[in-house]
Design a protein that fits this description.
Helices cover about 35% and strands about 20% of the residues. Strand 1 and strand 2 form a beta hairpin.
Amino acid sequence: MTATTVRGLLAEARATLTGDEAWGEAELLLAHALDRDRAWLVAHRDDAVAPALAGQFHCCLSRRVAGEPVAYIVGHRGFHALDFVLTPDVLIPRPETELLVDAVLQRIPQSAKVDIADLGTGSGVIALAIAHARTQARVLATDASAAALDVARGNARRLGIDNIDFAQGDWCAALGQRRFDGIVSNPPYIAEFDPHLAQGDLRFEPRSALASGLDGLDAIRTIVRSAPAHLQPGGWLLLEHGFDQGAAVRGLLQRSGLADVFTARDLEGRERVSGAVARNAAT
């Protein structure tokens, strides 16, 4: 009998999976099944794989063929140079959300002692990326989901990040009477009946973290309406949104009484993050 090898399993997976990411997904799934990293796979292409481990890989491959996201199968995903544990209770972080984190970090000097709130933290990727990069800041991560907060707390412990606190509650309701130097959020912003919700990875992600009302803007409306009361004078609000929602979100921010409304574009030139600043008391 011919031994099953790393090379053979990767070839099998590449022939089975579809899409532009097939090769990368095959490597991620095999590395997970073998409890190795992808660099090890490159250096050991012709190594034999024990039948039990090959069986685990085939199980992972079957789950992916059925549509389950790779991030849920392997249980983690990299974001902003950190690695986060994920479960189906939380949204899978996307690369475009790193723009939101970068926009926050641009507003916080390295040594600044500021209070930042992350609304709807999910797995904690935004809050923990900020807390990791700005160790003098204090970050409050909130979510309405207790299960999501458990994932975020676990990521904080595993990454050794301790300048962060957690609170359960719906958007600004979780903030109590506190005011912050900055509030950030990647809220759900897909329209409730968008057909994409029934396609691809989105089918497996928590719907409450994806969809928000008929036009996708209900959560953003709630945050924009409530956030000014929780901002220090000169404090800022930053929101991720859909590529075609920039004008609508800017309008909401302008009508809220916030100043200096702006929108930033992602690497593909799409409007992705909008924000504004709380007016000073004398303004």
